[in-house]
Backbone:
């Protein structure tokens, strides 16, 4: 129904994107903001047909999809605002010093678009991290044309949203090459998109193997390009002893909810729960168990994901020293994900790298550490993470400064007494983290700072006012913040 | 005299750096600024011995070296100021919205140090891009320990400066692992430094082959890391027709000076001069020729560089269609670089990739384009550049908007009526550019923004005030600029 794009058509697509780039890069932030707002408006009014289509393709419930569509519209408008506000432009002006020996010329700098950006949509967020999602919105805000490769798990939803975006592009008088949508279930299409000389950056959300492959291709190009793969994370949650003693029920409720939210199909799903042997532990495990048993299994996104979940869940449970704590009482139907909690000792976890791997789905492994020193060792042994969470009283935090130090080196977001799921769209959000959570810890994929992934600085030395971009003219017609002669103005 | 470090000692060096990182990353910007100022102070008062040593090792003249040392001190103090000013921290605060459904937690974000940084010094800047140079200064400002591999062409100068830095580290009560200095002329040492798991970023200034090799190693690690290689550039200078007609003498003077400055051993040396056939061209070429003939050949940095220059110069001159315009009248002594201007037609340049390559030294190739269209074609055919320059009247700029568009996609710095040599240390400077000028066009190696190469963002969600870094506390004790609830405060 949606055949892969041919390599000839793909080349034509990239030519069209490049041609569009030559004019799109020179549009004003206000023009690009208008485009983003137009897309948001159309998406907001896209009606029930789109939701029904997405429900059918993703098995996600109506309420969740409606919320996610709303979130996607919020992202688009909030990035539109940030685009105009212009912090991301990082404008800097140093005026001439003709009397200095040697004289200093007038120099001005701002960020400028990198070029066409290829976006690989995520299966688990058909709206917010797919066709009109965060990567598309921030690339457009930066002035980069976007080529979306539809996720093969929701092609109709993707095509529907793509149509809305193309209409918005036309209605705001942008060249049609500003946004293009292609299909490609094969390896070859993905590779050809990443390797094409006109591709200047790549956005991806998905598995480690997929994201790392795109990264490796991009580095093998004659001209390497940035790849922002947001891959995976076990999002360890450390429960400290006093907190465990005083709030085991609350912890069980929060964690059971977070582990099973969206059938565990979030990149911030808490896959590891790390505790020390202490008096509250048994009560906590019992409370967690009770809550997990009561969860209704639900259908996962698609057959590939539910089969992978089953496989990795069984692999996890069959490791020596791992025992099952609890599963949902109700047996899962075909394609459903079975909520599951396993338990292992700290020593066993440290000795078995397999247990460090993400199990994508409603699965979490409780690690019982002998003591605080072993908990620190476990923390040290972890890979880079999107998030780490500490469940802790203030006294716990005082008593565990070494642990806090370790996890702050490991993660992009450090939570205290909040579960990792739920990613706010705001300036202060870092959705990213040290490898292998992402391929570039210096950037994140949520919040206005994500625009900066798709730009590079350019300096103008001794360029007459008339020929400077508006962003850098003396009169500051766009009213953006600028560092002028060393001071933030 | 300076044997390569053993792999065992190298591993110990990296262990020491990592240990230092754990405390250095938590020092305040003021503490790190004090360290940078201490280094600057010691370097400023390092006396004539250091200059004599550098003269002997690099063959650079006394005046140049004294200036470069002054520039290096200026870099250190200006990055110290920027470190405290805190724009690079990119602090963002979104306060809790408990009434919202769902409630928003308090979230705060700032930049934090990446980890130990390996710096490969440059041969052509024994001070400003070497041991205490821009990479070292910005990495220290960011909170990253630095391991400098001495450039084999000036080991004594490097060791002398390293000793000053180590003293400054001790005097400001930092752990000694904050700065370490190693020797290694072999391939293996460079590779082991880049591949070591505790290395989190690399700074390099030098040749394409060297910089690209470091980049490739870094990408082949289990955990890829950022490599900032500033490699090479032909820094094309476009002379537009009206400017040529009215100011051929001034152009010849400016260009002859820029081409031969420092025996052409600058990364911003103008290696291509691109003109169209027009009435002023012959007068310009004659004026340029006269000035080049009068230049005294001078010794190059070391035997390797002067041999490479001779080789690449001859290779350039022997290409079909290339003719010699002029050389310095005085024949070069052994080890000296012979100032040389060659000429070629636009069509020949377009057809021969060899002519696009940098010839490191006082060599420039004049490209005579048939017309404006061919000049655009030549511009389009160029690799990514550190700089492009337009020599142009306002009427020329009006008549060449397409050319301006092309070069603004190709370069990190666009000059009008200034030669590319001379890199100001200021906020507005972008010293970097699209590949192959550098391996990461999103960053530059000069100016306070260069600190940002060595940091990544971290978010703190729902973290109590006491446990937040000072940068993010409500009271803003460091008085840094922050985006608070979406507004720059």
Residues:
């Amino acid at each position: 129904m949606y055949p892969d794009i041919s390599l000839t058509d793909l080349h034509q697509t990239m030519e069209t994107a490049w041609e569009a780039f030559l004019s799109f890069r020179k549009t004003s932030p206000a023009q690009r903001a208008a485009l983003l707002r137009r897309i948001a408006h159309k998406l907001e009014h896209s009606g029930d047909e789109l939701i029904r289509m997405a429900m059918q393709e993703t098995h996600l419930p109506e309420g969740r999809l409606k919320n996610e569509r709303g979130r996607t519209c919020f992202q688009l408008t909030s990035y539109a605002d940030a685009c105009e506000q212009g912090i991301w432009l990082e404008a800097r002006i140093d005026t001439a010093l003709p009397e200095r020996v040697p004289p200093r010329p007038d120099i001005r700098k701002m960020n400028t678009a990198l070029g066409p950006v290829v976006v690989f949509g995520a299966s688990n967020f058909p709206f917010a991290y797919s066709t009109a999602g965060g990567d598309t919105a921030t690339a457009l805000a930066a002035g980069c044309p976007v080529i979306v490769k539809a996720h093969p798990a929701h092609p109709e939803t993707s095509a529907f949203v793509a149509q809305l975006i193309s209409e918005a592009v036309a209605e705001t008088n942008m060249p049609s090459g500003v946004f293009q949508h292609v299909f490609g279930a094969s390896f070859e299409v993905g590779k050809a998109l990443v390797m094409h000389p006109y591709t200047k950056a790549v956005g991806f959300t998905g598995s480690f193997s997929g994201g790392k492959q795109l990264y490796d291709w991009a580095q093998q190009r004659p001209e390497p390009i940035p790849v922002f793969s947001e891959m995976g994370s076990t999002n360890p949650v450390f429960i400290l002893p006093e907190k465990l003693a005083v709030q085991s029920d609350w912890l069980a409720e929060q964690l059971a909810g977070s582990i099973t939210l969206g059938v565990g199909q979030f990149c911030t799903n808490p896959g590891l729960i790390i505790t020390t042997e202490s008096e509250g532990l048994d009560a906590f495990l019992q409370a967690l168990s009770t809550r997990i048993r009561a969860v209704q299994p639900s259908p996962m996104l698609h057959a590939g994901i539910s089969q992978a979940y089953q496989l990795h869940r069984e692999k996890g449970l069959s490791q020596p020293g791992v025992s099952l704590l609890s599963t949902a009482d109700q047996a899962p139907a075909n394609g459903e994900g079975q909520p599951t909690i396993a338990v292992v000792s700290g020593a066993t976890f440290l000795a078995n790298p397999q247990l460090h791997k993400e199990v994508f789905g409603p699965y979490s492994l409780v690690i019982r550490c002998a003591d605080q020193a072993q908990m620190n060792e476990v923390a040290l042994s972890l890979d880079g993470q999107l998030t780490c969470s500490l469940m802790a009283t203030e006294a716990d935090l005082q008593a565990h400064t070494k642990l806090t130090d370790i996890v702050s080196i490991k993660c992009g977001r450090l939570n205290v007494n909040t579960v990792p799921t739920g990613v706010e769209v705001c300036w202060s959000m870092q959705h990213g983290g040290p490898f292998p959570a992402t391929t570039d810890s210096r950037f994140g994929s949520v919040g206005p700072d994500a625009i900066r992934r798709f730009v590079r600085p350019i300096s103008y030395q001794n360029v007459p006012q008339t020929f400077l971009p508006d962003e850098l003219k003396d009169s500051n017609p766009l009213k953006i913040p600028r560092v002028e002669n060393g001071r933030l103005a």
User: Anything to note?
Assistant: Chain B has 15 helices and 19 strands. Chain B touches chain A through 74 residues (CB under 8 Å).
